[in-house]
Amino acid sequence: MLPGHLLAVAWPQGPEGRRHLIALVTPDDPKAEDTPQGARSLYRIDPDRAGAPRKLLDGLPEEIDALAALDLDGDGREEILLGQPGKIYSAGSPDAATAPRLLLEADGLTLRWAGSPPVFQATEVGRLRTWTLTGGQMMPGPALDLPVHAAREAQALRLSSLPATPIALPGGGAPLQVVGPEDSGKLRLRTLLFDATGKRSDAWALLPGKEKVDSFRYLALDGKPALLVTTSDAETIGVFAKQRLRLFSLAAGRSRSGEPPAVAFATESQRWFPVEPVLLDLDRDGRDDLVVLQPEGLGGGDLVIDTFFGQGEGRFERPRRLKLGNLEARAWIYGKDLTGDGIADLATFGKAGLSLFAGTADPRESLLDRRPRKTLDLKGTQVTIGVTVSLGSEGLDAATGSPGGLRGPTAEDLDADGRPEILLVSRSAGGRGRIVVVRLL
Question: CA 415 → CA 11, 304, 341, 376, distances in Å?
Answer without folding.
Answer: 11, 33, 18, 21
